Amino acid sequence: MAAKRERETAERRIAALVAELHHHNIRYYLHDDPEISDAEYDTKLRELQRLEAEWPELLRADSPTQRVGTPPRDEGFQSFEHRVPMLSLDNAMDASEFEAFDARVRRLLDRETPIVYVGELKLDGAAVELVYEDRALQVGATRGDGRHGEDVTENLRHVHTIPLSLPESAPAGRISVRGEVVIPQVAFARLNRRREARGDDRFANPRNAAAGSLRQLQNVDVERLRSLELRAYQVAEGLPDAVTTQWEALGLLRTWGFHVSEECRRCEGAAGAVAYHTEMEARRETFPVEADGTVFKIDEFSLQGDVGTLPRAPRWAIAFKFPPQQATTTVRAIDVNVGRTGALTPVAILEPVFVGGVTVSNATLHNRDEVERKDVRVGDTVVVQRAGDVIPQVVEVVRARRPKGTRRWVMPEACPACGARAQRLEGEVVTRCPNLDCPAQLKNNLFHFASRSALDIEGLGEKLIVQLVEQGHVKRVSDILQLDAQRLAGLERMAEKSARNLVEAIERAKDTTLERVLIALGIRHVGAGVAELLAAHCRGDLDALMQSPQEELEAVDGVGPTIAESAAGFFADPRNQEEIERLRKAGLRWPLRPAAPKRSGPGPLDGKKLVLTGTLPNLTRGEAKSRIEAAGGKVTGSVSKKTDYVVVGADPGSKAQKAESLGVETLDEAGLLAVLSAEVAPPSDADED
Ligand code: IVH
What is the mean pLDDT of residues 381-409? Predict the structure, then answer.
């Protein structure tokens, strides 16, 4: 009986952890916007691994321990299949865990003598694969879920440490090189400063900044790409037979023109490895690029093969993490920030303290539950941490040092900026200020409205917005579009010329696209990607979009129930309707998008579902998709029994195999064109064919 109950408890905990880790994977990999620190993530992952080891029969196929990351998003970049999977690494948190790894390796190899490892820095960036054909760069892709990544070749071409071609000394044929795309600390700090000035969210860490830069789809910021660097660490395909060790492979990468971390070193046995790790940890502040640990790989490839690989990570390598950078300090006050969407975020105001290379004077406490759980009080001594994260976190309270007479902190009942009664909705962790006219929200909304991905109003920065709001010139977002030079000239530090420039910038920004308008409106869950989907769906017709019921929005490919509910709710609110009307009256305009070419009568692909995989010889994916849609068909992301055709190009993904196993008909490009032209082409053309 007791055993059964224990098993049930484990099963429930496993289910909860799987769901939670899945959520965090999506935040991390898809949105480049993690909610928790790496350390917290690792703790959860390890708990799950432990439970699964204890209850092997409870191991679920969808467990995050069975794979890395998250599959690439459907919309946007082409999917790229890694012929050799890009694996993850297991972690060691301290010397004893590293020694356990080394002991296992020696047990597996049945060896007493020390193993030679190559020690490398674990750079905190985005892993990429670069494929060369006959020495010319063909494709560069992100790791994605390890099997399929995103083809970000065009963006990677701007990274100047990526050789576009290899020297003659490299073999012909296919070569795959892997490495980490990183952003140097200096460039990272600059990027975040710029984002903040624009009212965009900061990147939580250099890795998210690097990954986010690589995955820019539109209005690609080339400067940002140029600030990235590649450090190569692996040849995954095309390694000459003569190269038999990792150490030699690193040397070869250098001769091919790649940057390889200078800190790489051969280390003998666990003692040598731990010494290397300790030295790197002492030097970590001096590296131009953030490293969050070291990586050790068995040097001899033949021994790597003997030790083997598990589905998620090799057994011949391990990441040895640096401890998070922590310090203790005291809490002077707990303030509440009001975000753009009215979210009230408690922030600990700290006695300034130096952690991980920066002075920290405040740390987010996330939300009410978090403060309650940690029981952080004014006057407390707390441990703060910067674990690769740039947003410092309060880890815990040092209870022993709590002064007498402190009081539990309570979330204020009113918004600190406008006094409106704060609300917390059922099932949400966030407390919000419901007042749409709240000045704090208004300021943040204005930053967002003017930011680059939204209306991109040049020169409308933070200081100006604060003045405009505080002096009552702007009471709602739409007022911005009505500012005239006279009113602006009255502001502090605003010369006539800059006032004129700003008015011109506002005028320019009025001519825009629906996609930018949707971003600018600040609808929750509607970021750039979703805005594009919605704008395309309604073909630029905002009225049509506003009248679409939630179910219709949900039916848009890439739009889930949360987004649909949020957007429909936003448009249903009369205050938002009025504001949209005011924006239009103030001159905000955007073009309708041309409808797909009209068909005369029924299309040849009416009601048919098609899936595209691989690269077609002539048509781009976008062209193929719009032609199929013009012919009445629908392009979907995955193959099922309901799929009518799978269009297969070069280097197809697993979708081609799936089609075969399900008996779904496949077409090549010529076949697709034939199906399409069944009706679309006029008879005279058809005769000539
Ligand atoms: S080797 C099977 N070497 O860490 C080999 N990875 O958790 C797997 N990383 O996806 C990768 N520095 O993004 C390797 N010197 C290094 C690395 C490194 C950073 C990252 C990489 C990988 C992740 C594994």
Answer: 86
Q: Quote the pLDDT of residue 125.
A: 93
CB 243 within 8 A of CB 261: no
CA 314 to ligand 1: nearest atom: 2
Q: What pairs with residue 345 in β-bridges?
A: 337
pLDDT-above-70 percentage for the chain: 92
Place of tokens 């869950």: 525
Q: What topology does CATH give the domain 456-509?
A: DNA polymerase; domain 1 (1.10.150)
Q: Give the pLDDT band of residue 357 (cuts 50, 70, 90).
A: low
Q: For residue 277, how many other CB atoms are within 10 A of its CB?
A: 23
CA 119 to ligand 1 center in whole angstroms: 12
The mean pLDDT of the chain is 87
Is 609 one of the catalytic residues? no
Catalytic residue among 122, 321, 443, 655: 122
- H-type alpha helices, 73-150: 95-109
Q: Is 298 touching ligand 1 by the criterion CB < 6 Å?
A: no
Q: Is the CB of 123 under 6 A from ligand 1?
A: yes
What does the pLDDT look like over 306-319, one tens digit per residue? 999 988 899 999 99
2-66 belongs to CATH 1.10.287.610: yes
CATH 3.40.50.10190 domain span(s) along the chain: 609-677
Q: Tell whether ligand 1 has an atom less than 6 A from the beta carbon of residue 127.
A: yes
Pick the atom of ligand 1 nearest to 91's CA.
Answer: 7
Q: Ligand 1, residue 264: give the atom nearest the CA.
A: 15
In what helix (H) or strand (E) does residue 499 lie, and over which residues does it extend? helix 496-510
Backbone angles phi, psi at 596, to 5 degrees: -60, 150
pLDDT tens track for 568-616 = 999 999 989 999 999 999 999 999 887 655 555 678 888 899 988 887 8
- Whether the CB of 295 sits within 6 Å of ligand 1: yes
In angstroms, rounded to a whole number, what is the distance separating the alpha carbons of residues 520 and 510?
Answer: 12
Is residue 102 helix, strand or coil? helix
* Strand positions, DSSP E, 195-305: 229-237, 265-268, 291-298
